[in-house]
Amino acid sequence: MEISTEVSESRVRQTRAAAERYRWSGSERDEAWRRRERGEAFPDSPEMLAARTARLIQRNGLPVEAALEATRTDALDQPQMYERILGVAKDLQSWSFLPRGARAARTVARICVAENGREIPIGTGFLVSPRLLLTNHHVLPDATAAASVIVEFDAQVTVDNTPDVSRRFVLAPEVFFAADSTLDFALVLVRPDADGRQAGDTFGWNRLSVQTGKLVIGEPVNIIGHPSGRLKEISIRENRLEARLDEFLHYQTDTEPGNSGSPVYNDQWEVTALHHSGVPRTDDQGRILRRDGQPWREGDGDDAVDWVSNEGVRISVILKHLAALPLDEARRAYLTEMGPESGLGAVTVPPPAPPMDERPAAEPGTLATTPRAGLPAAPGAFGGSRHVVFLHGRGQEEGVPEVLRRNWAAGLNGGLTRAGLPTIEPADVCFPYYAHRLLQAMRPVEALPHPPRGAVEAVAPAPGSTRRLYEQLIVEAAGRAGLPGAGPGSAEGLGDSVRRGLNWLADTTDLDRLFIAAVFADVAAYLDDQEVREAVLGCVLGEMPRTGRLVLVSHSLGTVVAMDLLTRLDPAVEVELLVTAGSPLGLDGVHRRLLTGGPRRPGRVTRWFNAWCPIDPVALGCPLGDRWTDGPEEVAVANPVGQAHDIDEYLAHPEVAQPIGAALHAAAPVAGAGAAAYGGATP
């Protein structure tokens, strides 16, 4: 059977199932309608209204000032307060609604199959990681079907309404393919393009969340797809969620066949569902009806159907299904790329790796999960005489270096695109990887990779000088964040001050206490324990270039390592640009323990640029210019609440990416015999 015919028949089966669900969920929908008639704009449960309101405010979906203005004049009970805030969020959209929608639209692709000498559009799909595409099971029912299709990005018109130049990719289901007919989803790996570039590095990808609170009944939904195989179209705003079932959502919006596999967004452009079917009107016998009231028959065409609603699969349900699949480590690693909010966990890290020349080659298309010292840049990258190095922070002990480097590059490419500058290839970046060396060098109590949930004490250093420094750093950071009476000299004991400090930092930044404690524990261990410091520096130095011009981009603990590293680099290396992001270098307890001996700008750095976020608990000592002699150029950025410390969020800001892009594309000397030599390689 031809794939297009199989897709058509499968879509009819899904349509009938959606119609049946629509019939038996009629009582909930009718109750929502009655509540709307009584004046309730969002006829949902108080619990869902509360969860939605909290998510909006915490993630900057609605300015706190607007929420306060909406509720300050009247005495409101909680449901009324939530309704008022949600009404403001529905009616008022910031200017970023449109560019964020345009960014989301780039992740959406048309899926076509070649049959009888022509390409037939069969559905829509969208990226949910740098290289995973989500669509419907009835669009890609099996790996054989997935291997025969073309995925076409930028199949759309330009701002001048002329056809854009599309980019075509093929899929690799033999490497990763997961699907379920009941939930009607298929998740498949996208092969890189001819230059080895991942689709997500060019078009971005949607960060899926397993959490609730993304949508309530009565709220608008927005859908981007390829109806009837046409160039990309969007349905926005004048649509609403009608009913929420255990596994599906019903909503009013305009879609057509070909929208199958489209993302269903809320107004903050978070994916709430995977669109998979229209809902037709049916008679008492369950027969699909035409618009003239007569039973629909095969051959009548989709335009003849009397459509009454649409149905999508809840994205949280799909994520929970994926989390329960019995996958091997290599395939589980692909799911990990979908990000922490997906709830899909991390890859388990095996024991320390053997030397590079003793490792077996990875199977084509798979991810290596063995920890490595790092990744060199591709030979000749940036002309061979200029080198870009990403220096990561803490908490990467379970990371896969290839994935980490790609995520950094994806964030930077987003910022470069917004700044109007050319993007980079992840493989052109040197990525030293020291996380496992840090863990090996720290004492067992300090190096627990999986402390019990909420057990902050488990990540604290053992009693001694490192423990004292750890506590001092937390108290100092909390004081800079505005905690009243914070400081070792307060009336309470230092232990009480540390607990208060962690609670204050967590409450004011919306980051987990355990995460904050772990960051400061690693910083303290690096600064206080010479064995730890030497292990990390030795690991990084082994991957650094020995000659040429250097652009060093560092994050979190990596900014501290970078400052020390500048005292050890080969004299033949010229540091054109140092970027520090989410850095603790402004804390007195940090900068006075650096190898430089204090807050003094390294003399060998031509340009230093620092980016910080006011709600990043690690960067609360910023701006650095107040304490550093001849300090850096600086910019404060607004990262999302809950992601304030994320490096990809920092790099996605055009004002952060701009100096990096400017340095990369400045005139460089002609590469000669002194081109880069990495990690012991012979020039």
TrEMBL record:
Stretches the record annotates as Disordered: 277-303, 344-364
Keyword annotations: Hydrolase, Protease, Serine protease, Signal
PANTHER family (UniProt xref): LYSYL ENDOPEPTIDASE (PTHR36234)
Protein name: Trypsin-like peptidase domain-containing protein
Organism lineage: Bacteria, Bacillati, Actinomycetota, Actinomycetes, Streptosporangiales
Gene3D superfamilies in alphabetical order: alpha/beta hydrolase, Trypsin-like serine proteases
Basic and acidic residues: bias regions: 281-299
